[in-house]
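Example record

The entry below shows one chain as it appears in the dataset: sequence first, then structure tokens.
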Amino acid sequence: MDLKILKNIKEKSPYVMILIGPPLSGKGTFVKEFKENIDNDVVSINRDEIVMEVYGSRNYNEAFDNVNQKEVDQILDQKMRKANSEKKNVIVDMTHMGSKRRRMNLGYFSNDYYKLGVIFPILTDEEYDKRNKKRTQEEKKDISMAIVKRMIASYQSIRPEEGFDKVISI
């Protein structure tokens, strides 16, 4: 993944980066590489990670089915508010396929934040299948192709009123 276009992002501090893409599109890999190569102090906020933390298991499918989703949302809210109050650089690692969710999550961050949207590409069915098999084996997180396709179909284009300073495509 070529991160050169983001090499100067720390000059924009504080910044919030909203990742936009369906499951299996590479958002998690992007976060890992970004932390290793660009900004190892960036705070990554990921609802799926909160689900597993609250449930107490790395088995995502089991955790998602059994966790209290309201508790997860409360913790997500706390993490967003805390990051803003501490002026942390943040990556919000969620699908963000809809305008409403993007606006909501950007709304946690004050006007002094540089707000960047990062759009991930739509891949072939074969690539999603390959990535899903790997993820299922490594993370016990299986996502059906029907869910991936439904999320792709639900994508809403970025609108100016969402509040991004810049939007880039990977």
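Notes for this example: The radius of gyration is 16 Å. Residues 82 and 88 are 9 Å apart (CA to CA).
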